[in-house]
Amino acid sequence: MIVVFDAQCLLCNGWVQFLLRHDRQGVVRFASIQGATGKGLLAEAGLKVDGLQTLLVVDGARSWQNTSAILRVLDALGWPWRLALGAWLVPTPLRDMLYRWVARNRYRFFGRTETCAIPPPDYAERFLD
Which of 51, 109, 42, 34 is nearest to 69 (CA)? Predict the structure, then answer.
């Protein structure tokens, strides 16, 4: 499973740090939208880097965006994070409406960095170019 994230977004970097701490099985890998792998995965999903307002999760030939991507990753983390699957009961348009609002305002609310974060040495092999 690959999480494609915005490496300049501090909220996104916080999400990656959360996943690194809680993914005990090491099933999640990461690709930034600023890197070649991330750009390629976005293109395959029909998405563009400019103005991107979604998280993309790719697992084999399947991909998910927005809240579905978050729920998919939390499911992969196992217990207790799998409990988040109860959010599937909320209609997707409602979940994604809130998600898109946060995504549009992520730099204003959480900030951004002009340089991409360097992965911690212990996890460097999980980050794709």
Answer: 42
